[in-house]
Design goal:
single chain; mainly alpha; 10 helices; Hypothetical protein af1432
């Protein structure tokens, strides 16, 4: 784990603040909170999947083999490596076209990652990513898409506030573990409060 931590940290240090190593540390923390309530889950598999889940992220990585290479370097069975790959494949939202999380480990990793996409940190990450990609803060003329392909989801450079309605506000109801659902409630409510305040300030009501 110590070597893997160093290897993945070098990769994540190349990404912007929305997907850097601090993101991984927070997801690990979320995963540990959920693991405490799921005694049957394989902790090692969960932790490794969290560390690797963004190393080959399509938004950043030019090295599409980074995930496979790091997995290959680990002293794990073929079944364990395949399990980790399946967990990582099920993490992404993909515009609502997500791959089902079939195991408790997959559910924990997905919930842990999505918890970092909502709440105060989620708000900060959304605007950090939007700034890195040159996105508008908001665009009232932009139509919110609730049904789209993965390609449509990734190809359109939508305003940051639009992203709340196309993804972030949907995540609370997509949590799969009891603890994940509990943790999502307060974070979801904070996003709603933020969007309400933002609207008031933009309209000169606050």
């Amino acid at each position: 784990m110590e070597k893997l931590l160093k290897d993945v940290k070098r990769i994540y240090e190349q990404f912007d603040a929305s997907h850097d190593f601090q993101h991984i540390e927070r997801v690990l923390q979320n995963a540990e909170s959920i693991l405490a309530t799921e005694p049957d889950a394989n902790k090692e598999i969960v932790r490794i999947a969290v560390l690797l889940h963004d190393v080959s992220d399509k938004k950043y990585s030019e090295d599409k083999e980074a995930e496979n290479n790091l997995l290959h370097s680990l002293n794990l069975s073929a079944d364990q490596k395949q399990h980790i790959k399946e967990i990582i494949e099920s993490v992404s939202f993909n515009g609502g076209n997500e791959i089902p999380a079939k195991t408790i480990e997959a559910k924990i990793v997905r919930d842990a990652d999505r918890l970092d996409a909502i709440g105060a940190v989620g708000i900060a990450r959304t605007f950090a990513y939007g700034g890195a990609k040159g996105r508008k803060l908001y665009d009232d003329a932009e139509e919110v898409r609730l049904e789209m392909s993965e390609e449509e989801y990734r190809s359109k450079n939508t305003a940051s506030v639009t992203h709340f309605y196309e993804k972030l506000l949907l995540l609370k109801d997509l949590m799969t573990t009891v603890k994940g659902k509990q943790m999502a409630e307060e974070r979801h409510a904070f996003m709603e409060t933020f969007l309400h305040q933002l609207k008031n300030e933009r309209e000169g009501k606050a």
